[in-house]
């Protein structure tokens, strides 16, 4: 007997308020195969990258490009010597303060610009300017004004992040279909109910995409200011190792920044999936 996999959208069970039918075994197997294929491609890509990295490093003798084996060994040594942990904490202080401020300010600002035409015409111009101007050119001005302080580093992180978050939120609430809003209003929904029931659920995915991109820019801003004007944290270690021509330590510190970025973006993606499941269960 052939098993039939039923869709969970517009089914009689859903209309009657009953739980959806169980997903059949073939569908589960297909889902598992897709997940395995995704991870196989990811691991194969990383393996190819490491092999090429190792070959280039050994060909140059590790003078300019440290082999991946040497890089990993130096990374372990840096952790054991206690150099990485304090540097990571000092760097991430700016990220821990600046990124939440960017989200708290950027999301409401983006929602306002996306739904209020007058505010959009008056303010969005400045966000466009912030996206166009290279932030690295603004960093010296910030340092002159605020000095070599944590406040200056936090402000740089905000400048790298807030325009991205705000513009993505602005675009997210603009793509909501007008007829859905008009239909909810015709049924007597208040402005708050329209936001809770139509606008925010419809813009959920683009908003979280903007948050992930903003997080990546926040990490970039955190490191850029340390590499240019404030030699502190992980950026300070990179400057030190570069001046000493310590290729192994330099690549190890850079790899640590890459790992941290991948972990943080991965956690943001997991949070997005968790919130999406909760919203789906609530509906």
Question: Any overview of this molecule?
Answer:
The protein is an all-alpha fold and 283 residues long. It has helices spanning 12-15, 25-59, 68-81, 84-115, 117-132, 135-146, 150-174, 178-186, 191-202, 204-228, 233-243, 247-282. The protein has 2 domains: 1-59; 67-282, MetI-like fold (Orthogonal Bundle), CATH 1.10.3720. It is 82% helix and 0% strand. Helix 3 packs across helix 12 (247-282), helix 6 (135-146) packs across helix 7 (150-174) and helix 11 (233-243) packs antiparallel against helix 12 (247-282). The longest helix is centred in the C-terminal third of the chain and has 36 residues, at 247-282.
Write a brief caption for the model:
The chain has 12 helices and no strands. With 283 residues, it is an all-alpha fold. Helix 4 (84-115) crosses helix 10.
The sequence of SSEs as H and E is: HHHHHHHHHHHH
- SS strand fraction: under 5%
Q: Based on the structure, what is the oligomeric state of the protein chains? A: single chain
Question: Would you tell me which CATH topology of the largest domain applies?
Answer: MetI-like fold
Q: Tell me, rounded to a whole number, the average pLDDT.
A: 77
Q: Report the principal-axis shape.
A: flat
Enumerate how many helices there are, as a single number: 12
Task: Point out poorly predicted stretches.
Answer: 1-19
Whole-number radius of gyration?
A: 24 Å
CATH superfamily of the largest domain: MetI-like
In terms of structural class, how would the helical and strand content be classed? mainly alpha
CATH class of the largest domain: Mainly Alpha
The CA-CA distance between the termini, in Å, is 34 Å
Q: What is the CATH architecture term of the largest domain?
A: Orthogonal Bundle
What is the count of structural domains? 2
Overall number of strands = 0
């Amino acid at each position: 007997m052939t098993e039939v996999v039923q869709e969970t959208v517009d089914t009689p069970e859903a209309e009657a308020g009953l739980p959806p039918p169980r997903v059949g075994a073939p569908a589960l197997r297909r889902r598992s195969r897709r997940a395995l294929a995704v991870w196989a491609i990811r691991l194969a890509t990383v393996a190819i990258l490491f092999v090429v990295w190792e070959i280039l490093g050994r060909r140059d003798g590790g003078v300019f490009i440290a082999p991946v084996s040497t890089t990993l060994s130096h990374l372990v040594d840096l952790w054991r010597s206690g150099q990485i942990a304090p540097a990571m904490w000092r760097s991430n202080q700016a990220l821990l303060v600046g990124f939440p401020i960017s989200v708290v300010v950027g999301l409401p600002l983006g929602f306002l610009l996306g739904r209020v035409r007058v505010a959009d015409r008056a303010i969005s111009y400045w966000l466009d300017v912030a996206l166009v101007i290279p932030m690295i050119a603004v960093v010296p001005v910030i340092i002159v004004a605020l000095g070599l302080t944590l406040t200056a580093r936090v402000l740089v992180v905000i400048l790298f992040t807030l325009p991205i978050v705000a513009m993505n939120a602005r675009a997210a609430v603009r793509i909501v279909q007008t007829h859905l809003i008009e239909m909810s209003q015709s049924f007597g929904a208040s402005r708050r109910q329209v936001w809770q029931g139509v606008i925010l659920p419809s813009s959920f995915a683009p908003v979280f995409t903007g948050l992930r991109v903003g997080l990546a820019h926040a990490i970039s801003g955190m490191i850029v200011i340390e590499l240019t004007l404030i030699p502190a944290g992980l950026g300070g270690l990179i400057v030190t190792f570069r001046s000493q021509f310590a290729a192994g330590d330099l690549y190890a510190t850079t790899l640590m920044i890459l790992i941290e970025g991948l972990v943080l973006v991965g956690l943001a993606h997991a949070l997005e999936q968790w919130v999406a499941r909760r919203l789906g269960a609530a509906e």
